[in-house]
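Retro notes
What went well: the complex prediction finally ran end to end.
Inputs used:
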Amino acid sequence: MKSGPAFAILVLAAVAIAGPAPGIETEREYHSAGDKLICLCGCMQSVYGCNHYGCPQSDGLRKELRAAIASTDSEQAAIDVMVKEYGDKILTEPPKHGFSLSAWIMPFAALGAGGILVILVLQGWRRHALQAAAVAAERQQVDPALLDKYSKQIDKEIED
Amino acid sequence: MENVGSFALLLALALAAYSLGGSAVGAWRNKPVLVKSSQRATIAVWALVTLGIASLFYLLMTDQFRMSYVAAHSNRDLPLFYKATSLWSGQEGSLLLWSWILSTYAMLIVVIHRKASPAVKPLIPWVNAVMMGSQCFFLWLNTIVASPFHLLLASGEGAVNMAVPDGKGLNPLLQHPAMVIHPPILYIGYVGFAVPFAFAAATLIVKPKGEEWIHVTRKWTMVTWLFLGTGILLGARWAYAVLGWGGYWGWDPVENASFMPWLTGTAFLHSVMMQEKKGMLKVWNMALVFSTYLLCLFGTSLTRSGMVSSVHAFARSPIAPYFTAMLALGVTFSVGLLLMSRDYLRSENRLESLVSRESSFLFNNLVLLAACFTVLWGTLFPVISDAVTGNKISVGPAFFNKVNIPVGLFLLFLTGVGPLLAWRRSSLDGLRRNFLGPAILGGVALVGLFAAGMRSFFALMTFMLCVFVTATIVQEFYKGASVLARKRGISLLAGVRDLTLSNTRRYGGYVVHIAIVLMFIGFAGQAFTAELETELKPGESATLKNYRFDLTSVTNQDNPNFAGMTAVVDVYKDGEKIATMDPERRFYKASQQPTSVVNIRQRLNEDLYLVLLGPGQDRAGVGIHAYVNPLVMWLWIGGFVNILGTLLALKPSRGVHETPRRAAALVVPDAVRATL
């Protein structure tokens, strides 16, 4: 009985070293790689997920992907085989290099530029309001009670 | 009947041209009789286009296969229900539907605003002229470029009219109840944005004093925004129930085309409050109204020109150059009007504090427009890449999800923050008072879900923000209602009712925000989708999460419209039988096309979604694809709540003056005004 835990640890270690069965690993790679490739029929679905009955593309692409996985040693290598065959358009998303990198950058660049613009606009408006108030205060003294009364009235009416 | 329809549309085109010219000249030269006559012509245009569409409807219902359109989109054995829907299943019919909806809007404007207030009345002839300008374009397409009344011709020399014994039938994917209402509702939304566009253009031509026009425009925008949003959701529902890939939104160019004007329309509905209440953002609001309708035209052109590939798009047709010309005209017209009206649109741009409702609206607009730009950029990137590098790139859902999820979460955050910030300025004390409770609740939700084992970053963020936003809205209702209840000696529930009815626009808006929260809950569920694809023979089982599927039998059916195969599957959850599901595979005879009829077991926590893929590899079994889709139901519930909230916001408030008052319009002594 004393050797029980040690034996269990040995078995677990052996399983961990061996990893999952080759068939399962290949299937996992096929699924994962298939999800990173887009069906070329225009359905916007992945090669793995395309469910168009009689789709002119997906069955052939799946066969090629399985062959690529069988003939290479990694998921990425299989994807590279498909890209070599069909070009970057086989990928579900633009690659992050060359001109395609702009696809990823532009939305965030636009958001950032817009954010800066909004902040500048807000600061301009604020400056305008402060200047107007300063000029008015110089010209005539306003009763603080009157100011408070109308300020509250404006707040109420805007909220309505 | 085709001659009646054809002639009606041709006459409608002539009358629309007369109405356009008559309205513009009548308003310009101040000739009320000419204006009146033009408005009557607009009503006649509606009657004639109605006759045109009724003619096509009759031809479809009576199987007139000598007509090219009928032969291409219907067949004898098609159920009557779907014969009616084939009216908008093709290019020509859907363009006629567009024309008819546009003419209906134009007619309604003439009728509803017959007794408009003195501030709005001078706008109506110009509104009519702009509407009729758009109408002329579509009637031109209906009569000259893409007429639905073409006869089927035998090809070859000396072509003669002919009829085929039966039509090619309706695309099987369109034979679904959602497709009966999705296209018309989407079109009511799409086309409806012509109305705010026309009001905005008329305002810049007439330059009336006051802001009443913006109040009228906002109401029209809300109506059309509601239809567009509902149409988009119905499309998502159709995709979910029909396409059989387990999802409801694939970022397809056709879907994106409808989403972009919805985003800019939403931005307008927020920023318009700045103009109504503080006289700010006048140029910006005009630009939003113009771009929303132009995006509708752009989207329509995108889906019909073959510029981008999509399984949803109409077949490539010769209408693309006409749409491009119309878009160019629309952009020139809009930019020209804006440039000529700079003085009129000068805003009273003053900001008391950077931490205020005004700031939040600007950020809200920024995020909505960034989302719109992202969708546009992603949709067009394959074309841009092809043009710049000669290398065609695919931009699939993975890209749109990665880029839009952070943007969407920021928007959700602003949905909670915006309404809690006061107009003009928010004090630190006020911020603490308003935000502390919701922020704590959001934090508790985050910690609780993490402790419960949730590890998806975006799902955690979404649920935290959903709790935060819900708490802010509930707090707003509670604070207002409890004060009202105390003051009037009524219950809290009655207080909520009275509070809501006293300011329907504000509280209706909050209900719409709740709808957005519900939809985000639905979106977050996608992070936990599980799926299984397997082949089963009768008597065999498969498992997915805690579900077990037993294939009990496979049955066949045959009727004049289609032949089909049904898999009967007993479903067990944790060992207990919960349902018998029967996904189908059909083969439509007339169109010679197969399709899946998905079976969905919908619950609040998760949907069980079964697709029959067809016969298995060895023909003895069948292929089954099963999905467990958590929380999808909340998306549809959100859609219903959105309708309720928008209708509530459209309802006039009880005992409150209809036209919003602007702070700038208050009677305040000049000295005080300058310092406020």
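What we learned: The mean pLDDT of chain B is 89.
What to try next: split runs per interface for comparison.
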